[in-house]
Structure formats: structure tokens, C-alpha cells
Write a structure and sequence with these properties.
- The protein is mostly beta strands and about 200 residues long.
- It has one domain: Lipid/polyisoprenoid-binding, YceI-like (Lipocalin), CATH 2.40.128.
- The chain is about 15% helix and about 45% strand.
- The protein is built from two helices and eleven strands, in the order αββββββαβββββ.
- The chain has an eight-stranded antiparallel β-barrel with strand order 1-4-5-7-8-9-10-11.
- The protein is elongated and about 50 Å long.
Length: about 200
């Protein structure tokens, strides 16, 4: 039988290592806290595109709010929540802008807001990301993926991206507008956002 004896001098060192190991494991597994960002609405833009009678049109939402927490190096720790005031939709066409808030379209009297909430954010390439989440519109909630590029420098972040939707999946376009005969079913939501790091 072989007996190994440890010197008294080595014992305290091993004890210290044993105590330090759980601390190191906790630090290594601790979640990364995402940076909070404040939208610069004067420089930001949330818009939408569609096609009516074969002609493309674009519009924008004038009022919206967002809560963004994101570390580009660790997107999985982030969270995005954006709320849009649907009554602020504007395309520059009087007839279209009058119709959009109505019951056949956004029905802002009953459903004044649209809301996107992320459930996961991931990197898909250098400066390219995807935010998986849900969009709630006209009391319908469905999964949506936002694809965007993001660059952060000098305390500011710049994001550009879009999501492709089928409007009737959310009940947008009732009655004679439920088919794509006059207004295409496919629409796009675009965003060009500038935000500054929250201090």
C-alpha cells in the first residue's frame, strides 16, 4: 500500500484553490448584462411599404416608443420591445391615409397600438442579426422575425432592417380588401434607428 503525504505548506494552497473554484464557475456562467439604449426619434424612422393597383407606395409611423437592451457581442442577452401608434401612419396620399385608421384596416378605435416583443436575438454574421419575437396587431399575435444590421460606436448604435408580413394574417384589410386584387397582401415593415447608450 502506497500512502501519499501532503506537506503542511501545500495544504493551505489547495484549500484556497478549492474555495476559489466555485466562485470562478459562477463568474463564468453569470449572464452578460445588455446595454440599455435610448431611441433618438429625431434621427430614427419606422416605415412600411405596400403595393396598390400595381404601384408601390411607402409610408411611415410618426409616433412610437421602444425599449432596447442589447450588447452586439452577446445578442442572446438582449431584449427589444417596440410599440407603434397606428393612428400616426402616413403615406402622403389623402384617400389612403384617411382609410388606414378605419375598421377595414388598422381599426385604431379598437386596436390603437401594434407591439413587437423579442423572444430571442442572435447573430447571423458580422454586424447582421435576427430578432425573433411576436407582433401583436388588431388583437392578433403571431411570430415575426426582424432582420437587421447593427453598428455601435462612440456611445451610439445604428440599426437598419425589415420584416416581411402578410397583412391578412393580422386581419388588416377586411371585406373587399381581404383579397390582393387591389392592395397586395405582402407588406414590409422597415426601420432605420439611431439610439444612444443609456447612462
Amino acid at each position: 500500500m502506497i500512502t501519499l503525504r501532503m506537506s503542511r505548506r501545500a495544504q493551505p494552497v489547495l484549500v484556497l484553490h478549492a474555495l476559489a473554484l466555485p466562485v470562478l464557475v459562477l463568474l463564468a456562467s453569470a449572464p452578460v448584462r445588455a446595454q440599455d439604449w435610448v431611441l433618438d426619434k429625431a434621427q430614427s424612422h419606422i416605415g412600411f411599404t405596400g403595393t396598390q393597383t400595381g404601384t408601390r407606395f411607402a409610408g411611415e409611423f410618426g409616433r412610437y416608443d421602444g425599449e432596447i437592451a442589447l450588447d452586439p457581442a452577446h445578442p442572446e442577452s438582449g431584449h427589444i420591445e417596440v410599440t407603434i401608434d397606428l393612428a400616426s401612419a402616413h403615406t402622403g396620399d389623402t384617400q389612403r391615409d384617411t382609410a388606414l385608421p378605419g375598421a377595414d384596416w388598422f381599426d385604431v378605435a379598437q386596436f390603437p397600438k401594434a407591439r413587437f416583443v423579442s423572444t430571442a436575438i442572435r447573430s447571423v454574421g458580422e454586424k447582421h442579426y435576427e430578432a425573433l419575437g411576436t407582433l401583436s396587431l388588431r388583437d392578433v399575435t403571431k411570430p415575426v422575425t426582424l432582420r437587421f444590421t447593427l453598428e455601435a460606436k462612440d456611445g451610439s448604435a445604428y440599426a437598419q432592417g425589415q420584416a416581411d408580413l402578410v397583412r391578412t394574417a393580422f386581419g388588416v384589410g377586411q371585406g373587399p380588401w381581404a383579397s390582393g386584387q387591389w392592395v397586395a397582401l405582402e407588406v414590409g415593415v422597415t426601420f432605420d434607428l439611431v439610439a444612444h447608450g443609456k447612462k
